[in-house]
Amino acid sequence: MKPAYLLLFAVLLALGSCTGKSADKAPAQQPSSETTSTAQAESEPTAEPQPEKVPPLERTLTAGKVSFTLSCSNESAEKNVLCAQPQGLEVRNDQLCLDVEGQARDAFQADLNKDGFIEVYTFTAGPDARGHLYGFASYRNRSYGPINVREPKDALLQGYQGQDAFYVKEGQIKREFPLYNDNGQLSGQRRVITYQLKQGETSFILEPGNSETVN
To answer: Is 101 inside a domain boundary?
Structure first.
């Protein structure tokens, strides 16, 4: 009987060892917390070119006991207000303002008619680079008023695309600009226009006079 007991004991022992073992299970794979996007990032919109920032103009011009302060805020690239504030005139010293095209770039004084009384001028330029000239004249140092500035005739503006320079040379106001040919290319030449100041019925008139084309 002992062999039968020994056999039964061996079988029970084998069964106990099988139930005591727990099968190893591979841990479940966790999804990665990092995700990769297959979509390409949208490109940033291209910034539009900003217009040139022109600082406000404030310039005081003096001749003897009389002075004029010209000011322009230059807030807009297209239209602004130019103001003249005189001092030292005998009758009228109140401020006078004009609507102007573009932004005021500089100011200067002259005595084009050589009457001994000051005129003050400023020139402007807009987004199209075309220049404009504005002025005020002293009326024998008693009062003052705006100057009526005439535009050049079309023949003088043939080949014109702006980029004006205004300046005083030998007591005369000059306007100079590059000339372009019919295909829009620079021709290598420049036109110089000389202005003349004349007495009108109620105010002074500044009009283009002689012109020349220079290389």
So the answer is: yes
